[in-house]
Amino acid sequence: MSLIGRPGVLDLAFACPLLSPYFSEWPDPLPSTGSDHVLILLRFEAPLFRAPPTPTPNWVLSDWAALDSALKATVISPPPLLPTTRSLDVWFSTNLGRVTSQFALHTSMKRVTYRSNSWWSELLSMLRKAYNCALRSSKRDRFDAALLASARAARSAYFKAIKKAKRNHWSSFLASATPQTVWTAERFAIGRPPPCFPELPGASTPPKLNKALLNHFFPGEPAEFTDTILLPFRECLPLAPDEVSRALACSSPSLAPGPDAIPNLFWKRVHRVAPHLIHDLLAPLVVY
């Protein structure tokens, strides 16, 4: 290996672009053998096997004092005069984004971590830190009986505190259970059922089942999209404001939110603050 270059084999090693982000260095700690071949150690940083959790809005702690005035001042722009499928979709997405951006602006984010549990406390964090310190000390000197005993005591105190915190949280959850949360308590008590997938002839795995269903219900090539002008439905009545109120009243606040991650309880309060927003967004979609 010359001092001004490196062997071409390194270029071949980095031909895979998936390994490039994890490359760290290539040291040559071994002494020279006197031949033309040099052993070089390649080091790669271990990738994350689990992606870090993304922060989510904490809808309970929204600043409604500022959000009320912002929602009341938000005006939905009129739909296009000659709407097409594409232009109507752009109009709806733009106005919905203006409304939901106000939600994100006045709502704090949750600091989600791998230990984001409702039963976690500062005491558990302190016990976990003490346990890790005692464990590291015992590993540095494995023949010190006092350090080993301290590590065992710290471990026992840490895991006993976790079990106690879980029991107390479960007891308080059952004590404050309501008719809406009793089914959640039953699901927690029974546990999650094992994953099971239906089987079709020749499709015993989820990917094969997915492919078989797609080929059965959606055969052939999809039809080409034509962006034509939409005509209003003559028999369709305009959307009334009280229809939105009745639909929101029937929606359960305990249901899981949709793809926008905004719960129904939040949308109900938005409608009470600014009744025109949801109505002005949905009214053109009902007509065309």
List keywords for this structure.
two-stranded antiparallel sheet; 4 strands; disordered N terminus; 288 residues; 5% strand; 10 helices; mainly alpha
What can you see in these coordinates?
The chain has ten helices and four strands; from the N terminus they run αβββααβααααααα. It is extended. The N terminus is likely disordered. The protein has three domains: 36 residues, no CATH class; 103 residues, no CATH class; 69 residues, no CATH class. The strands form two sheets. The protein has a two-stranded antiparallel sheet. It has a two-stranded antiparallel ribbon with strand order 3-4. The chain is mainly alpha-helical. Helix 4 runs antiparallel to helix 5 and helix 9 crosses helix 10.
**Would you list the SSEs in sequence order as H and E?**
HEEEHHEHHHHHHH
- Rg value: 30 Å
Q: Average pLDDT value?
A: 80
Number of domains: 3
Distance between the termini: 73 Å
What's the oligomerization state? single chain
What's the story with the biggest beta sheet? 2 strands, antiparallel
Topology:
Layout: H1 9-13, E1 23-25, E2 43-44, E3 57-62, H2 64-73, H3 85-105, E4 107-109, H4 122-140, H5 145-175, H6 182-190, H7 206-217, H8 241-250, H9 264-273, H10 275-287
Antiparallel strand pairs: 1-2, 3-4
Helix pairs in contact: 4-5, 9-10
